[in-house]
């Protein structure tokens, strides 16, 4: 199996999240960031929280951002968290209702010296304020599939 380059340009659907104080505070605490700024009703979110809010704050779909995980799994294939990047247009805060549109922006593969491969799936997600449509944050995430080398026959 080789990297699914046909996914490049695929739309990943949309998602709606409601940023809640409890989830924001728990995330900050997990990072050992006890800044009281995260306690208020309109508190800012920690810098990497946009990666997690699909798991904690989603209204509807949750999780992997629309990637076809079932196609990426299989014997000898391990899914890993790769890079993540955030471009803030304004800082998200508790009480925000955000909507996303996502797409697969790149897929590539690198051979490993043991005969296996690493497949890279890059997604870009634009998060906008649900009421105004104004951009809030753009996230980029790279999911890696570590493919074991073929077994000798």
List the helices and strands and how they pair.
Blueprint: E1 11-18, H1 21-30, H2 49-56, H3 69-72, E2 77-88, E3 97-111, E4 117-129, E5 135-147
Antiparallel strand pairs: 1-3, 2-5, 3-4, 4-5
Task: Describe this entry's structure for a reader.
- The protein has 153 residues and is mainly β.
- It has a domain at 5-16 and 61-147: Thiol Ester Dehydrase, Chain A (Roll), CATH 3.10.129.
- The chain has three helices and five strands, in the order βαααββββ.
- Strands 1-3-4-5-2 form a five-stranded antiparallel sheet.
- Helix 1 (21-30) crosses helix 2.
- The longest helix has 10 residues, at 21-30.
- The radius of gyration is 18 Å and the shape is elongated.
Poorly predicted regions are: none
Mean pLDDT: 88
The amount of helix comes to 10-25%
The count of helical stretches stands at 3
Largest β sheet strand count, sense and barrel closure: 5 strands, antiparallel
> Could you give the count of β-strands?
5
Strand order, largest beta sheet: 1-3-4-5-2
- The CATH superfamily of the domain at 5-16 and 61-147 turns out to be Hotdog Thioesterase
C-alpha Rg (nearest Å): 18 Å
- At CATH level 3, the topology of the domain at 5-16 and 61-147 is Thiol Ester Dehydrase, Chain A
Structural class: mainly beta
Helix-strand string: EHHHEEEE
CATH class of the domain at 5-16 and 61-147: Alpha Beta
Summarize the structure.
By secondary structure, this protein is mostly beta strands. It has helices spanning 21-30, 49-56, 69-72; strands spanning 11-18, 77-88, 97-111, 117-129, 135-147.
